[in-house]
């Protein structure tokens, strides 16, 4: 009832503008770095902290400033999300039906967990002191904020769908039919 089409459009525009500004600032700051070390990154993608390690002097401080700005924006987003959830939960607790309350909690809590997990691990990765060599912690933090949240999102949003639940229940039956026709056998 509170979220109309105009507010939804404004929220989407704010997300796109914030993401665009952050991307432009990171790109500009990263391109301003003077590189003098071997241009080998011991990482699975060109993560900004890993690129900052290749800097010759303190010219990577612009990247740190952008990371601080982005973290403030992310913190503002998290606070906004947290306030929204406080409002949602206070409204849900007034629902007389325990079944109605549990449906909302089972929908909202996984989303809140994934957002918190993403923001926490990204902030840990970007505010961790820069060391000369890549560590297992660097790789683990990068995996935590780049791979795990997008992997969990389809499960969070689609497994609540009744059609998806029905399709998953029929999956063993379909797999059995496939193996019978093709002559394959799964153990």
UniProtKB/TrEMBL annotation:
In which domain of life is the source organism classified?
Eukaryota
Q: Which UniProt keywords apply?
A: Cell membrane, G-protein coupled receptor, Membrane, Olfaction, Receptor, Sensory transduction, Transducer, Transmembrane, Transmembrane helix
| Keyword Transmembrane assigned | yes
A single GO molecular-function term is: olfactory receptor activity
Q: TM segments?
A: 12-40, 60-83, 104-127, 139-159
> Cellular location of this protein?
Cell membrane
**GO CC annotations, alphabetized:** plasma membrane
Q: How does it sit in the membrane?
A: Multi-pass membrane protein
Gene3D superfamilies, per the entry: Rhodopsin 7-helix transmembrane proteins
Which residue ranges does the record assign to the G-protein coupled receptors family 1 profile domain?
A: 1-157
Protein name, please?
Olfactory receptor 14J1-like
Naturally occurring in which organism (per UniProt) = Dipodomys ordii
């Amino acid at each position: 009832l509170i979220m109309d089409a105009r507010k939804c459009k404004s929220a989407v525009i704010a997300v796109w503008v914030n993401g665009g500004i952050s991307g432009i600032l990171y790109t500009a700051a990263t391109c301003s770095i003077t590189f003098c070390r071997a241009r080998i990154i011991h990482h699975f993608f060109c993560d900004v902290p890993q690129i900052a390690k290749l800097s010759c002097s303190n010219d990577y401080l612009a990247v740190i400033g952008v990371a601080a700005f982005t973290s403030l924006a992310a913190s503002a987003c998290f606070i906004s999300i947290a306030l929204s959830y406080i409002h949602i939960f206070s409204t849900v607790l007034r629902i007389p039906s325990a079944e109605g309350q549990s449906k909302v909690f089972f929908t909202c809590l996984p989303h809140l967990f994934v957002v918190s997990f993403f923001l926490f691990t990204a902030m840990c990765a970007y505010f961790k002191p820069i060391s000369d060599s890549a560590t297992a912690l660097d790789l683990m933090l990068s995996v935590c904020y780049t791979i795990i949240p997008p992997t969990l999102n389809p499960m969070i949003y689609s497994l609540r769908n009744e059609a998806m639940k029905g399709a998953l229940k029929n999956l063993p039956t379909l797999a059995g039919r496939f193996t019978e026709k093709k002559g394959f056998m799964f153990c």
